[in-house]
Amino acid sequence: MARLQILRYPDPRLYTVARPVAQVDERIRGLVDDMLETMYEAEGVGLAATQVDVHERVIVIDTADARGSPIVLINPELIEKSDEMMLGDEGCLSVPEIYDKVPRHAHVRVRAQERSGEVREFDAEGLLSVAVQHEMDHLLGKVFVDYLSPLKRSRIKTRMLKKTRDEARA
Ligand code: GNR
Ligand code: NI
Fold it and tell me: What angle do CA 128, 130, 131 make, to 5 degrees?
């Protein structure tokens, strides 16, 4: 396994639309394992392949308090979305130290392939529902700050560019 580098906003590669995985093979399983290691190392609750500059429809999520039972979503689809919305504070490993509220469907039903390639469906609510929607946005080239006002987004962009510059100098 290997730890991968996470792209930081406003890196233009975060705006790439991922393509479907044609076959869940050893290459994809290797990517999944590297993404899991990267997510746990960064202490995130989820990670989309887009964030590690791989533009294929692969997501890992672990929202459990007791870590270590991850959800792997390959070629995910939302087959049901509640009309009821929820507003939760979101963060993103690609936009470190920024948190803001984003509207999401309160309940979703997800269909995806797992690490074995088998298709499964499940219902999600709460943080899991938010995480699934956040990660699926990444696969479409969308970052949570894109839901915020242009003024907030512009301030965040400036802060991230400064942070990246300061870290490069340090
Ligand atoms: O670690 C993460 N926490 C989080 C908190 C609230 C809503 C969404 C998330 S996802 C984020 C990890 C990440 O950036 N995934 O793309
Ligand atoms: Ni994110």
Answer: 65
Known catalytic residue at 77: no
**7-38 pLDDT tens trace:** 999 999 999 999 999 999 999 999 999 999 99
Which residues pair with residue 111 across a beta bridge?
Answer: 77, 121
Alpha-carbon separation of residue 50 from 4, 43, 125, 139, 165 (angstroms) = 12, 17, 24, 6, 22
Residue nearest atom 6 in ligand 1 by C-alpha distance? 90
Q: Are 79 and 67 in contact (CB under 8 A)?
A: no
Q: Is the pTM of this model over 0.85?
A: yes
Say how far apart CA 72 and CA 85 lie, in whole Å.
Answer: 24
Residue 52 Cβ contacting ligand 1 at under 6 Å:
no
d(CA 26, CA 45): 24
Going by C-alpha positions, the residue among 113, 111, 108, 115 that lies closest to residue 35 is 115
